[in-house]
Design goal:
The complex is a heterodimer of chains A (789) and B (284). In chain A, 29% of the residues lie in helices and 23% in strands. Chain A is an alpha+beta fold. With 284 residues, chain B is an alpha+beta fold. The longest helix of chain B has 19 residues. Classes of the chains: A alpha+beta (789), B alpha+beta (284). At the A-B interface, helix 3 and helix 21 of A face helix 12 of B.
Chain lengths: 789, 284
Amino acid sequence: MTAVMEPEVGKARLRKEDARLITGRTQWTDNISLPGMLHLAILRSPMAHARISRLDVSGAMLRPGVITAFTGADLTDRQVGLPCAWPVTEDMVHPDALPLAKDTVRYAGEPVAVVVARDAASAVDALEAIEVEYESLPVVLDMEAALAEGAALVHEDKGTNKCYTWIFDSAGAGTGGDVAAAEAEAEVKIHRRYVQQRLIPSFMEPRSVVVDPKPGDWTMWSSTQIPHILRTLLSLLTGTPENQVRVIAPDVGGGFGGKIGVTAEEMITFYAAERVGKPVKYTESRSDTMVSAHHGRDVIQDITLSARRDGTITGLSVNLIANMGAYLGLVTPGVPLLGAFMYNAIYKIPAYRFECTGVFTNTTKTDAYRGAGRPEATYAIERIMDELAVELNLDPVEVRRRNWIKHEEFPFTTVCGLVYDSGNYDAATDKALQLLGYDELRAEQTARRSAGDPVQLGIGVSTFTEMCGLAPSRILGALRFGAGGWESASVRVLATGKVEVITGTSPHGQGHLTAWSQIAADQLGVPFEDVEVRFGDTRVAHKGLDTYGSRSLAVGGIALVQACGKVVEKARTVAAHLLECSPDDLEYSAGSFQVRGTPGATMSIVEIAGAVNAAHNLPDGVEPTIDADATFDPETFSFPHGTHLCAAEVDTETGAVRIRKYVCVDDVGRVVNPLIVEGQVHGGVVQGIAQALFEEAVYDADGNLLTGSFVDYTLPSAADLPDIESDRTETPATSNPLGVKGVGEAGTIAATPAVVNAVVDALRPYGVSDIQMPLSPERVWRAIQGGAS
Amino acid sequence: MIPAAFDYLRPSTVEDAAAALAEAGDEAKVLAGGQSLLPLLRLRLASPSLLVDIGGLAQLRGIRVEDDVLAIGAMTTHAEVSSSAEVQADAPLLAAAAGAVGDRQVRHRGTLGGSLAHADPAGDLPAVALALDAQLVLAGSGGRRTVGAADFFTDYFTTALAGDELLVEVRVPRLSSWGACYEKFHRTAQAWATVGVAAVVRRENGSIAEARVALTNVGPTPVRAVAVEQALAGADATAEAIAAASGHAAEGTNPTSDLAASAEFRKHLARVLTRRALHAAAGL
């Protein structure tokens, strides 16, 4: 009899990794201590733009415990610019981003000098003995000012602050009509300018790096999302053969995109270890994080929507200015491009044009932050859809419904040429409306309005989609990205039948250990508990492209399915030999092969693993292993979607916003683990709410970051946030065998416009149609007063 | 985030602490709950050569009822103050405000005395001490003296404490028959008050016999809203009277503009929050 195993995929398994992560019984990078290890501290520029006229580290060298101190000048023959892997256009301006400034600093926080000492405290103390004089240069912070004629230049030798201009036009691409024509004929044309404020990715674990410079066996531990990409680039940047470089990302405490760079700190620590010939550690403080880890968003969006009076959209054009900061990070210029194909969202839009100009300013560089490009796109389209609804006196849900792709129209080719494989926007929206109690809240809103209640109620709608599963390698190539988008997995069945999964993804909080165990358990028919998952060490997982862009499950998960399939096929050959039948006569289920029609003639994968390990009796020409590797390169992206609804109360006397109810129905395709999905959605929604109401990086006129700590950079905590009611619809992706779509960024993308739409909706009677994010009490109050928003 | 090196002393008597402070002069800092001082040290915004840790002075911890006064040891934590039945009964304003300080961790480490001695204009408890006319007992190498809250707060982060003095006790008049409310307005639950209003009201026969209002973070020190108090003395206990009086709340304030709010918005908040605090304190 064949045993029936309950499928693991779909089960709300508690996460295997949580006990060690929550109790801290694990190895964070800063816990690593090697014999003879030294500590590094970095002196950072207090100036946003200056020439270094004098720099003397000799005083620091004399301080107790100090081994050495050095500057950019000392690295002249060694250091090279940090890499940018996404030159989005042929003529993109790519300034040299040296890890340690040579003669000019271009943002406050740029590394200027380094001390290496026996302990971290001595290193920090010795920074005070470094003498440095700056000759200040004009600072340019505002993006539009930076593009104006005669603006001060961030990089004088480049002659411009413009990094690039990138254009997509559906008419030119042959994927849709001409926007200029659509706008000329439009019955309704709405133009808006939205500003995505600058945000600081606030991962829990600050970045940390340890370098052990053993000749022929260099090892870097780093709190990074990208150990594999880092290994390759480290090798290229330092000239160390790749097979002599090992990178380890031990357990990593969050990233949100903030840890996908090859950082100045990693390179400086490498150079320091090389100079002293001993292991060196650098762990940043939160204040360092705030100025030197990359920032996110900071985009000005001009968007024009054309429509007929019945609400049908006829055209969309988008003009962006994106702040690069002072230098380019690993994918800085490409972030807006990840949003370029998402402004049309879930709607049938016949004509579309997108143009983005990247600009240099004297600020910390920007780069990917949770959602990367897609939150910006979703915000702009979902905000302007509300404006269209107001203009046409339609319900905001109705105006969306009139434009979105119907379930029966999938697969649907968008105006960008992307093929959405699946989706059911009606189902998700109807469910969300019911969960919220939409009609009752609308009635309450009307009652409060007519009573002149000082606390007004608003309802915000956000029907979003995103492209996940980064990415089909050939599409990345067409977009001039410097790497592919495949992912790898290996499955080892050990002699005792236990399973080791090796994945090229690099989890930093996502729960891959649990989810990958569930997938492997189903595919191999082994118990969930018998699967372990290894990752993050290039010596163990030698091949991979790491974790970002909601790609791990939709790409890496599929590689795992394929590797498991290969294991089963190898085992089938051995089982047929041992059971003396044809492989075609074998059925595989719940971890066992059974000869069709011969009850009792079975062999489990555990027995086969033992037999293969002994190798006493294998068919001729069969290698004694059933282990297998697979690498998966997706054909297309996946497209999760959902409907988020927010009911917000606005205290019109103080401008305070309270989210009364937040409801989301997400469709992320097939769900491997509902608990993990819910956790991702909740965390994402919280970050989205935080952009809408709380977070903003602010510089003063001299380019000093005023929000340099969590006292001023307003990060909400649980007490400031609503209960989140999350539910799902499940429309499996047709583009991969698991039917999964990805969930890591969904909440962040959807929540921001839902919240802002709710607040603006509450204040429509006051003539308010927009408020600049974050919606601080004062900004809300001033909008009500009719002042500048 | 590593502080500069300092010497550390943990005396077992108030006299030893005062003597150490007298000897070290300006170079010493008193460590109470550490919730404000430690971040300053870690950011190297303060680099004292000596820390005098008064965490070992058990005699500075606890709450006593003495006739018409609550005597609260300076090292009593916010959590102890806010959960004390005596404070809740006799100084509900203080209980409420202590329960609104920082977050749970801060309230279990931070102390009433530390909060008053630090005199952060955005701190909640200085305004409460002012509204309650608390008496502060200071001990120095020359002995003890008592200073009223109105004379204690002298400027930004500056008090009447001499360099060799410790705040040892806070004496709060028992106002058990008064209504009280602390209205705190802040960006997030853990954030400092953008503006706070401490109000206590004594009612007699349907009118307001006496109202006291003190404001947080509208100037270098907490301030009494004198014009509001005067307008309400003897007034009818009505929403209209309170609303009219609250219109004077920003008079005499001098708020700063910062990332949390402009001065103009702070003045506006002072008026709105004063009205709300008085409304609640008057039991309307």
